[in-house]
Specification:
The chain has one domain. It has 9 helices and no strands. It is mainly alpha-helical. Helix content is 69%, strand content 0%.
């Protein structure tokens, strides 16, 4: 996590996220410490994803704090996905951030996390699996915004 090469730090963060319960006690503190110091957006995105994989309850609020426009698009997109994965309520702020970032796929390219390489699809499935009216409405609103977007790539992501 402290290698001088961002690609190595990114790979280490991704690998740590796959350690599961067996590695969480050691990995979570190291990932949190690195997230505070990490300057590279792609590495920060991988760190945040790993934290939510290992500790969704403890890291969900951290993800929610990273969706704002003051953060780089890679981190914001990872944060949106992490919020959904952590089971946090999908709010107007989440919707606004997702629409602001459309199309989302460019913000996940180059990530080791290939389970979320189609972000609109991932958000749609994750929210629909919750099986609540609010989440179904959120999916409808996101897809509607993407389909009405000026960028053809955003529309393609919703198709």
């Amino acid at each position: 996590l402290t290698d001088e090469r961002p690609s190595v730090r990114q790979a280490a963060a991704w690998a740590a996220g796959w350690t599961g319960a067996a590695g969480a006690a050691l990995a979570v503190p190291a990932l949190r410490d690195r997230l505070e110091a990490e300057p590279e957006p792609g590495v920060r995105a991988e760190l945040l994803t790993a934290l939510v994989e290992l500790d969704p309850e403890g890291s969900g609020p951290l993800a929610a704090g990273a969706i704002g426009p003051e953060h780089p698009p890679q981190l914001r997109t990872a944060a949106l996905l992490a919020c959904a994965d952590a089971g946090l309520p999908w709010t107007r702020d989440h919707h606004a951030a997702a629409v602001d970032l459309l199309p989302l796929e460019p913000h996940v390219s180059g990530r080791y996390d290939e389970t979320r390489n189609e972000p609109v699809h991932h958000l749609t499935l994750t929210l629909l699996e919750r099986d609540t009216e609010a989440d179904r409405d959120a999916v409808g609103a996101l897809l509607d915004a993407a389909l009405r977007h000026d960028d053809p790539d955003a529309r393609a992501e919703a198709a």
